[in-house]
């Protein structure tokens, strides 16, 4: 995946209900921040998001 990345990347999971905050979600957030300098966010509601904010570490809101 890294050779394909030229700009900022972010990880956004959209689900019908929020998964419990277990070690998988915590590890994914830490890995994304460390390796990709990007955010990993889980949202459960319907809204419009700005793509630059969704890729940011501090969140899509």
UniProtKB/TrEMBL annotation:
It comes from the Bacteria. This is Uncharacterized protein. It comes from Blastochloris viridis (Rhodopseudomonas viridis).
């Amino acid at each position: 995946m890294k050779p394909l990345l030229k700009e900022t990347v972010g990880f956004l999971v959209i689900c019908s209900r929020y998964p419990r905050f277990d070690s998988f979600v915590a590890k994914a957030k830490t890995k994304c921040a460390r390796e990709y300098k990007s955010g990993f966010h889980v949202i459960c509601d319907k809204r419009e998001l700005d793509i630059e904010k969704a890729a940011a570490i501090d969140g899509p809101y």
